[in-house]
Amino acid sequence: MKCPVGRPESPDDVAVETAEEAKEPAEADINELCRDMFSKMATYLTGELTATSEDYKLLENMNKLTSLKYLEMKDIAINISRNLKDLNQKYAGLQPYLDQINIIEEQVAALEQAAYKLDAYSKKLEAKYKKLEKR
Q1: Where is this region: Disordered (predicted)?
Q2: How far apart are the first and last CA of the chain?
Q3: What is the pLDDT of residue 12?
């Protein structure tokens, strides 16, 4: 078989059909090809729909798990809130005692200052007494 342009045939040119050689397939072949195409298209669309359905099932499961996690977090937050209220009540019950401790601390500091002053005064007095005693 010669190339339409008149060049010698190469192995690549063998697979190329010329317009004259192309034939329409028979009617039975077209029907079979259509059935095959529709069958494969149905298989493809079924696969796509199955994948989409699986995606939605996955999202549903993720939403259920997320909902459960949020319920757990809600319970934890409620427990923390309850414990915080209890702690605040206990602190409020201790507040008068803490105020008394602060007052006692201030009084001890004032007493300590008085003791330092008394110590300094007694040292001065002792120094004067020793001075007078020497005379």
Answers
A1: 1-26
A2: 153
A3: 52
Dist CA 46 CA 106 (whole Å): 85
User: What does residue 89 show for φ and ψ, rounded to 5 degrees?
Assistant: -65, -40
CA distances 90 to 20, 62, 74, 104, Å, are: 102, 42, 24, 22
Q: How far is CA 96 from CA 50, 83, 84, 105, 109, in A?
A: 70, 21, 20, 14, 20
DSSP 6: S
Higher confidence at residue 26 or residue 48? Answer: 48
Closest-CA residue to 13 (of 26, 22, 2, 23): 2
| Angle at 48 (CA atoms; ends 47, 50), nearest 5 degrees | 65
**Token pair recorded at residue 116:** 């330092």
Distances (CA, A) of 56 to 15, 30, 50, 59, 60: 47, 38, 10, 5, 6
